[in-house]
Amino acid sequence: MSKISEIGLLVQQFGVRRSPKWWGSLKILLGIGVLGATVRMLPYLAPIRAEDIAQSEQAVSFSDRNGLPLGTLLTRDQDHTAVVAMDQVSESFLQAIIAAEDKRYYQHGGVDLQAVARAVLEAVQARSLVSGASTITMQLARMLEPAPRTLPHKLGEVWLSWRLFAGMNRDEILHAYINRLPMGGNIYGVEAAARTYFGLPASELNLAHASILAAIPNAPNYYNPYSNWRSLKKRQRYVLDRMVADGYITPEEATRAEQEDIQVLFPDRGIIAAPHFLFWLASRLPDGVSTVQTTLDRPLQQFVQTQVQEVVRSLVAHQVNHAAALVIDNHTGEVLAYVGSPNYFADAQQGRNDGVQALRQPGSALKPFLYEFALEIGAIAPNQILADVPTHYAIPGAQLYSPVDYSEKFLGPVRVRAALANSLNVPTVRVLEQVGVERFLGRLHQLGFEHLTKSPEYYGLGLALGSGEVSLWELARAYVAIARNGDLIPLSVTPGSPLPASSADSLPKSSYWALIGDMLSDRYARSQAFGVDSVLSLPFPAAVKTGTSSDYRDTWTVGYTVDYTVATWVGNFSGDRMRKVSGVTGAAPLWNRIMLHLHETREPAALPTPEHLVQHPICAVTGLKPTADCPSVVLEYLAPEHLREYNRKEGFELSREYNSWLARQSQPQMAGDRLKIAFPEKDDYFILDSRDSTPRIQFKLAVAPKTPIEWWLSGPSGKQQLHPEANHALFWPMEVGEWTLEVRSGDLSDRVTFQVRTPENGPIRQGFRVRSEEEE
Q1: pTM, whole model, 2 decimals?
Q2: Is Metal-binding included in the keywords of this UniProt record (predicted)?
């Protein structure tokens, strides 16, 4: 009986006469499963072709605007990788790498079964792994899919090798292999290694160079030319011996190659200048680009780099470790110099950090943009008098915000020009209060400050003093707009090809950009804070602004002539505080050196004057048309709409907001026909503090005549004359009650009313704890 008949008899015996209905469904499901598994396995079955593993990374060579080389980057991700064609690799290296790694490369089919058998036999005899059997194709498979050295992964490596061999010829496999070879550290491929270690292209490698490079891949971290030269030379001898054994060279050639004196370049020799710039630009280049001409000027770049190093060296005792600088051509927006740190290759000093792109608090460097915007929208006028006086702002959920300058002094009434040029904080915050944080933030976004992404409430009034974070790049680009009278252009790093425009909008046409430049170039306007002949004062027309962030963590100086904008930063990448280094002592000397160098052969033209504005003499104290009793007359640019206020005949009188400032002055302001009490103010309430043994109030004048003054005090105990030790102030022992203080001098007089209460008197509208005379 046949097998088929036997199966049929068995079926009959078990009563299965025909297939049940579920059997057909099961066969369909099994078929679908097999088909799905086959489809999923297809990627692991198909041959791998050269285009499937083609490398997109290319070595990129950079030059400056005049064709001078800046350096070659062998990758965009800072792994030194380069792709080179087979016909651009020296024959010596191809022979050396084959002799060292796979002498039967052109005889086997991706997996050398002869070598596998030998390796297994040696392992059995020695009871340990004596030699490997990896071919070049298997090594390439491991580079493409790195995996642990386990048996399953080894089998996967073999299978991938067969797929590579099935889809590529031997030259294609060798080409992919030599461009992926690990050559020590973050260097990959023969071209990258040749350029990094010897400064040569792979096509110019001689036998000595080639045998050294072919020795490295066996243990790339161990045979590093920078750290283990002696061991590398021993491995070179092995490579040369293999080349002799395989008939590539003679013993005499091997000896000469071994004895040849080879100079290995330092790690930074592949980059001549501007490493921060090159890596930054490389990350923005499209694929396939191999040569790039930039807008940099190499001699200028090297000069700026040297100045950055020297300035940091001069400030090291003040805990300064880093600096950055940017130079821009105002006419074209081209970047001429870009220095991100004193030394890119100083890893221990965080040298790879890029100070041009890093986000830091700009301090007062944003003030010019606020003042221009305020003038543009009419929030202030050029001849307006601003109050630099003690000021307090209530912040929800926080303490009072009380802006002060680094001098911790207040100047009282100041002109807009003086407030900006001397970088006064209180007037600036008052201007921002009038403009509005949200509106000013919108203007900064127009100027291209893309990293100010928080809400207006987050920045608050401190935005004008640098509470946000910006980059030196953004600052420089915005100052170029001031230099160009509000014409905002994108910066360019390759000739004729500006970088893609940011989200910045165009700016409204305004004469006030030139006025801001005029104010920033006025050495006399900034003399109160910086002196007339400071490091900010150059022998030619230049506008400049400094900035210092809180606790001396960052210092900035950004300024321009008609031709160039220079932006500098000095600080610490770690955020550590410097030791009393401000913008004028930190970043300004660097700015000064660069500016003088840029103009050492040609003095720049004068800065543009404001169109549609006319200079008028104003009284420096009142901001109005000068009168006979004006102590100082200066010139200021005014628009026609300002002339009505300018011609106002009424005198200037300090408002109540100046009283606290006036009370701080050691002597009252003298005037021939005025008399004013500075403290207390009208309707003040005072709490009688029982903890003070002799609680007193200091009565003080803000404005007083030169003639003798009488002091009178009326209250519950009647009216009495007081006799001060000084003509302008006295201390009065506090008593509970309502009081009227009056001062007289001839026909002049002034009076205020105030109250002294005990704590149980009820709610107080305005209260002070008055310090005793001893506390004063």
Answers
A1: 0.69
A2: no
Q: How far apart are CA 550 and CA 406, in angstroms?
A: 10
Averaged pLDDT, 22-40:
60
Percent of the chain that is helix, strand, coil (3-state, to 5)? 40, 20, 45
Distance CA 747, CA 729 (A): 20
Q: How far, in Å, CA of 769 to CA of 759, rounded?
A: 11
User: DSSP secondary-structure letter at 715?
Assistant: E
Taking a C-beta distance cutoff of 8 angstroms, is the pair 498, 621 a contact?
no
Pairing of strands 564-571, 322-329: antiparallel
**Chain segment 38-55, per-residue pLDDT in tens:** 445 445 568 888 777 777
- The whole-angstrom distance between residue 171's C-alpha and the CA centroid of its chain comes to 46
Confirm if 429 and 389 have CB atoms less than 8 A apart. no
DSSP strand E in 585-625: where?
614-619
* Range list of H helices, 625-718: 643-646, 659-664
Q: In this structure, are strands 187-188 and 80-81 parallel, antiparallel, or unpaired?
A: parallel
Give exposure, 83-112, as e/b (b: 16+ Cβ within 10 Å). Answer: bbeeeebbebbbbbbbbbbbbebeebebbb
How far apart are alpha carbons 736 and 755 in whole angstroms? Answer: 7
One-letter identity of residue 104: R
Calculate the alpha carbon distances from 633 to 27, 530, 620, 626 in Å: 105, 21, 6, 7
Give the model confidence (pLDDT) of 107-166 as tens digits: 876 565 665 556 556 555 555 544 456 788 888 888 887 776 666 666 777 778 888 888
- Would you call 344 helix, strand, or coil by DSSP? coil
CA distance 341 to 578: 16
What count of residues does the chain have?
776
Q: Which two tokens stand for residue 424?
A: 């006064």
Confidence check: pLDDT of 478 > 50: yes
| SS3 (DSSP) at 91 | helix
Q: Which helix H or strand E contains 37, and what residues bound it?
A: helix 21-45
